[in-house]
Amino acid sequence: MKKLAIYGKGGIGKSTTVSNISAALAKRGLKVMQIGCDPKADSTRNLTNGEKITTVLDMLRQKDKVELQDIVIEGDLGVLCVEAGGPVPGVGCAGRGIITAFEKLEELNAYEIYKPDVVLYDVLGDVVCGGFAMPIRGGYADEVCIVTSGEMMSLYAAGNIAHAVKSFGKRGYASLKGLIYNGKNIDNEDQLVETAAKEMETNVLYKIGRNPLVQKAEDQGKTVVYAYPDSEMASEYDLLSHILLDS
Ligand code: ADP
Ligand code: MG
């Protein structure tokens, strides 16, 4: 079982990228589990017809005895979808939701029962404390990738995440695999991202193009890989999924 955590600033394109990677891997016959670790809880929506599934936290609030099938929902191409969820705004800590969700999945033996080949954690990386650091430090992910554009705020978040991975890494936790460059077509963007990668002592794994097909698929509640399998964009995500898994 390969476990990869994908971090990045809010809105940078993590969930879009992760769900397309999940779909690309599933198409190759792999059993994939995608775990959304963002209080926004929309990581897997393009695998479930654009609809948000009930989060682990909400399910725990609704039911005394939560079962695996309440929180693991099969999406397109058989991808197993989980959303950690978040607290009621103003009450409790967002990161705590991730910890609770991880504990529940383990308690219910999710990994033993579903036996996924790949587990992808889609994690909000604006702050890398408490629960948001769990995929890195809790023995969950083997490797971490960071989605970024050349925009300053997204590179700033990437720098923080890289720093966190490195400081935990010394203690034998997850290692930093590299950056996934989701370009925004800003001036001199390639150079900005390359320079930042060097400063983080890492490399750019892949540059994803900006493509209107992403929105078109999203409007149908689908991934590009599922809705437009023969498109160039689907091939890009497929290539990225190979880079993440085969090396
Ligand atoms: P995050 O999960 O990081 O908060 P999302 O994956 O929800 O971000 O993406 C935010 C928006 O950016 C979405 O509306 C998505 O369609 C768009 N987007 C992401 N990547 C691309 C891309 N490569 N081309 C076009 N639109 C994209
Ligand atoms: Mg997201």
Explain how this protein is built.
The chain is of the alpha/beta class and 247 residues long. The protein has one domain (2-245): Rossmann fold (3-Layer(aba) Sandwich), CATH 3.40.50.300. Helix content is 42%, strand content 18%. The chain is built from eleven helices and eight strands. The protein has an eight-stranded mixed β-sheet, sandwiched between helices. Helix 8 (189-199) links the parallel strand 7 and strand 8. Helix 1 (14-27) crosses helix 11 (232-246). The mean pLDDT is 95. The structure holds adenosine-5'-diphosphate and magnesium ion (MG).
Secondary-structure blueprint:
Layout: E1 2-8, H1 14-27, E2 32-37, H2 56-62, H3 68-71, E3 73-74, E4 80-83, H4 94-107, H5 110-114, E5 118-124, H6 134-137, E6 143-148, H7 152-169, E7 175-182, H8 189-199, E8 204-208, H9 213-219, H10 224-227, H11 232-246
Parallel strand pairs: 1-5, 1-6, 2-4, 2-5, 6-7, 7-8
Antiparallel strand pairs: 3-4
Helix pairs in contact: 1-11
This protein binds adenosine-5'-diphosphate and magnesium ion (MG).
What's this entry about, in short?
The chain is an alpha/beta fold and 247 residues long. The protein is built from 11 helices and 8 strands. An 8-stranded mixed β-sheet has the order 3-4-2-5-1-6-7-8, with helices on both faces.
Report the span from N to C terminus.
Answer: 15 Å
Which residues form runs of ≥5 with pLDDT under 50?
Answer: none
Report the average pLDDT across residues.
95
**Cα radius of gyration in angstroms:** 17 Å
Strand and helix order: EHEHHEEHHEHEHEHEHHH
Strand content: 15-25%
